Amino acid sequence: MLAVLSPAKNLDYESPVPAVQATQPRLLDDAQRLVTVCRELSPQQLGSLMKISDKLAGLNAARFAEWSLPFNETNSRPAMFAFNGDVYAGLDAGSLSAEQIESAQQQLRILSGLYGVLRPLDLMQPYRLEMGTKLKTAAADNLYQFWADKITDVLNGDLAQQGSDVLVNLASNEYFSAVDTAKLRAKVVTPVFKDEKNGQYKVISFYAKKARGLMARFIVNQNPGQVSELKEFDTAGYQFSPGESTDSQLVFLRAESARD
What's this model's pTM, rounded to 2 decimal places? Predict the structure, then answer.
């Protein structure tokens, strides 16, 4: 099966990367079109558009200015090792074996406001462009319109290559909304992670993000072929809850006492 993740705002271009066979993003021409549009905006305009500080706006204006082709291992980094957020703490790509890295390349996809869809070993240059950004281009009024068909077509192609009809949604609503599920040739299954707090179970963002990464690692390790196998996920104290789950939403609960 194929699983999709969100990217992370924080990036790591400093820590060591294992020797891997890096690949090229498949939608680079589209990414270059977006970079061209962003280069026309001043740091102040970028800050207003992205709702970020002046410092971050200046940083990202510089990133767009420096963005260049071709991508290589000198100016770029494989996506799985570049993103540095809660999801990626759960995935812990740096500890994956060569066999696990190859499994991740086959089974995981990262949705991106700039690159559309990334495989874990696709090279990427640093950026910040969230999917919800209302960036206007000649082709679309926002990034959802710009990417919807392209992202969905790539995912359909990857699913067909796998011979799979299941897509595991480990992305946020912001990013998964870029997928046209009406055109997606797969059943979408969304794991939901709830933690106990004051006697009630609820989605707590920090824990839920890390759990999505843990589930991604579980998929890489176990290579499940059926949705039922996802229910066996019990990492970090989470347990599948049949009573709260449906065919399309798998709910996992963790008691407060089970948290580290």
Answer: 0.97
Q: Do 109 and 144 fall into the same domain? A: yes
The domain total for the chain is 2
Per DSSP, what are the bridge partners of residue 63? Answer: none
Q: Name the residue with tokens 């100016």.
A: 75
Please give the residue range of the domain that contains residue 33: 27-70
Per-10-residue mean pLDDT, the chain, length 260: 97 94 97 97 96 96 97 96 96 96 98 98 97 95 95 98 96 97 97 96 96 98 95 97 97 92
**Domain-located, residue 131:** no
> Taking Cα atoms as reference points, which of 165, 161, 190 lies closest to residue 175?
190
46 and 167 both lie in a single domain: no
Is 255 in contact with 196 (CB distance < 8 Å)?
A: yes
List of residues 6+ apart from 207 with CB closer than 8 A? 193, 195, 254, 259
